[in-house]
Design goal:
There is one protein chain. By secondary structure, the chain is mainly α. It has three helices and two strands; from the N terminus they run ααββα. Strands 1-2 form a two-stranded antiparallel ribbon. Helix 1 packs antiparallel against helix 2.
């Protein structure tokens, strides 16, 4: 089980990313536009720099929804490989069974 503080902090990051998503998207569009002037790009970079660091989507970490484990997370199921295997062997995941041939 991961520390509760890490899980809560990660959830707060996700909220921050969602809050600033549209603003960052517009500013990045200005920065990447080849037709915008140097001054416009510079102003957009300054505005992005003033935003909180956690507003960037790369700061969010995929974690297991059951245990909070940060590594080995399966995106499709939202849980770590260990938890997935444990629940699958117990038969608690519908439609999942151990392969045998």
């Amino acid at each position: 089980m991961a520390k509760t503080s890490k899980v809560v902090k990660n959830n707060k990051r996700l909220e921050t990313v969602g809050f600033y998503h549209e603003r960052r998207k517009e500013l990045l569009k200005v920065i990447k536009d080849p037709d915008s002037s140097y001054d416009e790009k510079r102003e957009a970079q300054k505005k992005i720099a003033k935003m909180p660091r956690d507003a960037s989507a790369t700061r969010h970490r995929n974690r297991c929804q059951v245990t909070g484990r940060p590594r080995g997370t399966l995106r499709k199921f939202g849980m770590s490989r260990n938890t997935f295997r444990h629940l699958a062997l117990k038969g608690e995941l519908p439609g999942i069974k151990k392969a045998s041939w």
